[in-house]
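Handoff note, outgoing to incoming analyst
You'll be picking up this chain. Sequence as last confirmed:
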Amino acid sequence: MKKTVNFYEFSRWFEEHRPNNFSRAGLTELFDWLEEWEESVGEEVEFDPIALCVEYTEYENIEEFQLNYGNDHEKYPDIDSLYDYTQVIPVGTDGFIIQDF
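Most recent structure output, in case you need it:
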């Protein structure tokens, strides 16, 4: 049994149950990225918000990411360097969501 989730339902779940996982802009970008992925592979994604919270992390900037990933400025000097390691979803000017690795 499947149910289609629109952005309102998607964002509402996070706002009610995990309000600190993603910003509003982050939720918008993550939802759009998931929908684009569905279209590109021709498969529906099951809405598993806990898995999304575990597998994806939003960062305000590269410095916040570097602090979380061992302060490795040489290996990860900028957001572009992350594309070699994981999925990156830009959020605003400096922010981004990554699939944790």
